[in-house]
């Protein structure tokens, strides 16, 4: 009876001693556990088998990211990336055309163009405004799956690496971007870029051979086999891998800086565009030499080079180191616009898909 008269207190939250008696860890021990184990214990998943516990914890981790940048389902990333890539290339193709023309205008031969303006002027004089869009079909057919593979792979790699708020650290974003670039290079970029360069180069000749995209593809495969569409694979993998590693790293770095300690802070499309343009500029200055080598390896004169290293050596020997930065200015304008547009459209399409496509 006397025990009933003893004073008692009510504490906020679960009783620690009661939790210990029931088999739960004390708060001190709980704080020392890694975040993944704390999430597992808090969800009551400790009794599940290891593979089920890991899967359930990842789902809870995704749910925990509501306060920050939500994890994007790879399916949404593929769809949003494809849409963004298709719109972007229709806007920026003329700058890609000029860049490729200047890179193919080798110093060893009498230069045909005196600069960007002269290239645009002569192209319009010879072929009209439509001449600036020659070769668009091959790049359009490649741009949609390229962006789809890029963003789908990035989200697939980065989702398991995010913390409980959905934040991705900068080092991991670099690695995920590298993986996304390598994937898009092998699956899409190398064959499609090879076709694009060959068709643009063919249109510059006195007697063009290819009557269109599909005719050009059939002729190239008939003469050179499927291997003919994978010329310059090493240079393409190096270029795309470093490209996306730099872009996703810079974009993630700026995003984390902008949001600071508030993962819920929304990014306006203008801010996203500015960050995307900055990431694009960084990638241009970082790997334009690889882009020049890749373009030479995929042109109609690719047979002059034994391999990627020989191509780089020949350019350095006959044209000097400045040749590795031919076409930088038109590429800078195109890439900054390209990356800004792609990231803005991608983020907006993902937001739209989140409203109509509910995923875990």
TrEMBL record:
<protein>
    <submittedName>
        <fullName>Solute carrier family 25 member 1a</fullName>
    </submittedName>
</protein>
<keyword id="KW-0677">Repeat</keyword>
<dbReference type="GO" id="GO:0006843">
    <property type="term" value="P:mitochondrial citrate transmembrane transport"/>
</dbReference>
<comment type="function">
    <text>Mitochondrial electroneutral antiporter that exports citrate from the mitochondria into the cytosol in exchange for malate. Also able to mediate the exchange of citrate for isocitrate, phosphoenolpyruvate, cis-aconitate and to a lesser extent trans-aconitate, maleate and succinate. In the cytoplasm, citrate plays important roles in fatty acid and sterol synthesis, regulation of glycolysis, protein acetylation, and other physiopathological processes.</text>
</comment>
<keyword id="KW-1133">Transmembrane helix</keyword>
<keyword id="KW-0812">Transmembrane</keyword>
<dbReference type="InterPro" id="IPR002067">
    <property type="entry name" value="MCP"/>
</dbReference>
<keyword id="KW-0050">Antiport</keyword>
<keyword id="KW-0472">Membrane</keyword>
<feature type="repeat" description="Solcar">
    <location>
        <begin position="72"/>
        <end position="160"/>
    </location>
</feature>
<dbReference type="Pfam" id="PF00153">
    <property type="entry name" value="Mito_carr"/>
</dbReference>
<keyword id="KW-0813">Transport</keyword>
<dbReference type="GO" id="GO:0005743">
    <property type="term" value="C:mitochondrial inner membrane"/>
</dbReference>
<dbReference type="GO" id="GO:0010821">
    <property type="term" value="P:regulation of mitochondrion organization"/>
</dbReference>
<dbReference type="InterPro" id="IPR018108">
    <property type="entry name" value="MCP_transmembrane"/>
</dbReference>
<feature type="repeat" description="Solcar">
    <location>
        <begin position="267"/>
        <end position="352"/>
    </location>
</feature>
<dbReference type="InterPro" id="IPR023395">
    <property type="entry name" value="MCP_dom_sf"/>
</dbReference>
<dbReference type="GO" id="GO:0071913">
    <property type="term" value="F:citrate secondary active transmembrane transporter activity"/>
</dbReference>
<keyword id="KW-0999">Mitochondrion inner membrane</keyword>
<dbReference type="InterPro" id="IPR049563">
    <property type="entry name" value="TXTP-like"/>
</dbReference>
<dbReference type="GO" id="GO:0007528">
    <property type="term" value="P:neuromuscular junction development"/>
</dbReference>
<keyword id="KW-0496">Mitochondrion</keyword>
<feature type="repeat" description="Solcar">
    <location>
        <begin position="171"/>
        <end position="257"/>
    </location>
</feature>
<comment type="similarity">
    <text>Belongs to the mitochondrial carrier (TC 2.A.29) family.</text>
</comment>
<dbReference type="GO" id="GO:0015297">
    <property type="term" value="F:antiporter activity"/>
</dbReference>
């Amino acid at each position: 009876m006397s025990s009933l008269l003893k004073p008692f207190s009510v504490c906020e939250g679960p009783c620690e001693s009661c939790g210990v008696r029931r088999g739960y860890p004390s708060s001190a021990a709980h704080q020392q556990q890694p975040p993944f184990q704390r999430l597992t214990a808090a969800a009551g998943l400790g009794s599940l088998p290891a593979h089920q516990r890991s899967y359930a914890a990842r789902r809870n981790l995704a749910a925990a990211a509501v306060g920050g940048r939500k994890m994007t389902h790879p399916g949404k990333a593929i769809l949003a990336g494809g849409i963004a890539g298709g719109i972007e290339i229709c806007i920026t193709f003329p700058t890609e055309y000029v860049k490729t023309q200047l890179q193919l205008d080798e110093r060893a031969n009498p230069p045909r163009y005196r600069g960007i303006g002269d290239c645009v002027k002569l192209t319009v004089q010879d072929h009209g405004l439509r001449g600036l869009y020659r070769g668009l079909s091959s790049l359009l057919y490649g741009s949609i799956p390229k962006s789809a593979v890029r963003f789908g792979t990035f989200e697939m790699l980065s989702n398991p690496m995010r913390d409980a708020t959905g934040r991705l650290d900068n080092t991991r974003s670099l690695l995920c971007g590298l993986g996304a670039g390598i994937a898009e290079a092998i699956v899409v970029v190398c064959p499609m870029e090879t076709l694009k360069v060959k068709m643009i180069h063919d249109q510059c000749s006195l007697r063009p051979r290819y009557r269109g995209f599909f005719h050009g593809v059939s002729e190239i495969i008939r003469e050179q086999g499927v291997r003919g569409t994978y010329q310059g694979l090493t240079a393409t993998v190096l270029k795309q891998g470093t490209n996306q590693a730099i872009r996703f790293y810079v974009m993630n770095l700026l995003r984390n800086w902008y949001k600071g300690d508030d993962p819920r802070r929304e990014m306006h499309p203008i801010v996203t565009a500015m960050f995307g343009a900055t990431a694009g500029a960084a990638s241009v200055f970082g790997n334009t030499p690889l882009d020049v080598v890749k373009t030479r390896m995929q042109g109609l004169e690719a047979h002059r080079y034994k391999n990627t290293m020989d191509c780089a050596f020949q350019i350095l020997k006959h044209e000097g180191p400045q040749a590795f930065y031919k076409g930088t200015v038109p590429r800078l304008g195109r890439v900054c616009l390209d990356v800004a547009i792609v990231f803005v459209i991608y983020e907006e399409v993902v937001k739209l898909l989140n409203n109509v496509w509910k995923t875990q």
